[in-house]
Amino acid sequence: MNLFGRKSAREAVRPAQGKSSTRAAAAHYLTLDLSRAMDLAAMLANSRAARFIEIPDLLAGLYIYEWDRLSQYWPEENRDQVEEMLRDICQISPQRWNYWIAEYDAQRKAGEPVSGWKRFHKTKAVSQAKGLPTPSVGLKSVLDVAEVVSPFRDPRRDLKESDETAVPVLTSECMLLCIVKFVASATGRKLAESGLDTVQLERAVLDPKRSPLR
User: Fold this and answer.
1) For residue 57, what pLDDT is reported?
2) Do residues 97 and 87 touch, judged by C-beta distance below 8 A?
3) Residue closest to 164 by CA, chosen among 8, 23, 5, 32
4) Where does the pLDDT of residue 111 fall: very low under 50, low under 70, confident under 90, or very high at 90 and above?
5) In this structure, is residue 184 part of a structural domain?
6) 140 lies in which domain range?
7) According to the model, what pLDDT value does residue 167 have?
8) Going by C-beta distance under 8 Å and a sequence separation of 6 or more, which residues neighbour residue 172?
9) What is the mean pLDDT of residues 63-88?
10) Mean confidence (pLDDT) of the chain
11) What is the CATH number of the domain that holds 97?
12) Where residue 72 falls among pLDDT bands split at 50, 70, 90?
């Protein structure tokens, strides 16, 4: 599928060339759901004393916080096997999975909303000085491509429709699609081989009815 007439993700994402590069200053917003998944990914990386948040860490966050919604993109009869595969990819013990699922359930029972299409947060840089993990090169590539793929832009800035500097809004579906289809990685290959319906997923990513801004 052609990404609504824009450059392909591979062409649009290039290394920044000097301080004047617009890519160097690129920013994005995350939906509330994706923000929670990213926070969990950072905690998982920190729990193993890693310097970087890897793609499998994000996948773990998406699985724990978003499986009820994202599971629809796999055949129902394959979902148990897919869950086993996801736990294997993310390399987390059953005890740790149970801990995070319990935390998630506790937040839900306490009344904290667990989904939020209408709310989103601006991504904040994580301070290396504090020793907290930051996105790896691979995860940065996924974020960069997602900025290109996402059709949603922050409406609060007074910019012309043709202005490419409008801040993109990233969703969980968009990140999953970019991991599988637009960024080369072992994780993406395993997901592609798991029966994931990438055609349905891509339609959902580009569907304006699913805009987090509605």
Assistant:
1) 93
2) yes
3) 23
4) low
5) yes
6) 25-210
7) 86
8) 31, 33, 34, 37, 62, 66, 69, 70
9) 91
10) 76
11) 1.10.1780.10
12) very high
Residue 20 lies in a domain: no
Distances (CA, A) of 135 to 17, 45, 57, 63, 76: 20, 10, 10, 18, 32
Q: Does the pLDDT at position 31 exceed 80? A: yes
Number of domains within the chain? 1
Query: Exposed, middle or buried by CB within 10 Å (0-12, 13-18, 19+), for 25?
Result: exposed
Q: Is residue 52 part of a domain?
A: yes
pLDDT(11) > 50 = no
Do the beta carbons of residue 181 and residue 148 sit within 8 Å?
A: no
Least confident of 80-84, 125-129, 156-160, 182-186: 125-129
Per the domain annotation, does 130 fall within a domain?
yes
Per the listing, tokens 């940065």 go with 140
Cβ(144)–Cβ(24) below 8 Å: no
